[in-house]
Design goal:
Blueprint: E1 4-5, E2 7-12, E3 20-29, E4 35-42, H1 57-64, H2 69-87, E5 95-96
Parallel strand pairs: 1-5
Antiparallel strand pairs: 2-3, 3-4
Length: 97
């Protein structure tokens, strides 16, 4: 069974280049052997309460770096990659996160 690495990174949004996002990306082969890119992105600020979004970066880091919202973001991205992989015939067991 072919395995595919899924990268978890941060960078510029593909959908809105003015913001930074966390994203997952993998390059796989569909059932016909054609290359497919699996991509999902989320804005980390969407996981922080609105009243705290104007904090300076150091305060945000101190308050939210180890909070429950960061793993939630990771698992939302992971679940989206799994969903998109299934659409092209790739099982979760074939994905290495």
């Amino acid at each position: 069974m072919k395995k595919y690495s899924v990268l978890y990174e941060g960078g510029t949004s593909r959908l809105n280049p003015a913001i930074g996002v966390d994203y997952m990306i993998a390059h796989v082969l569909d059932q016909d052997g054609d290359p497919v890119e699996l991509y999902a992105e989320e804005n980390p600020l969407d996981y922080i309460p609105e009243e705290d979004r104007d904090l300076d970066p150091e305060e945000l880091y101190q308050k939210y770096y180890f909070c429950d919202c960061i793993p939630l973001l990771y698992y939302d991205l992971k679940n989206e990659i799994i969903r998109r992989a299934a659409e092209v015939g790739i099982t979760e067991d074939q994905l290495e996160f």
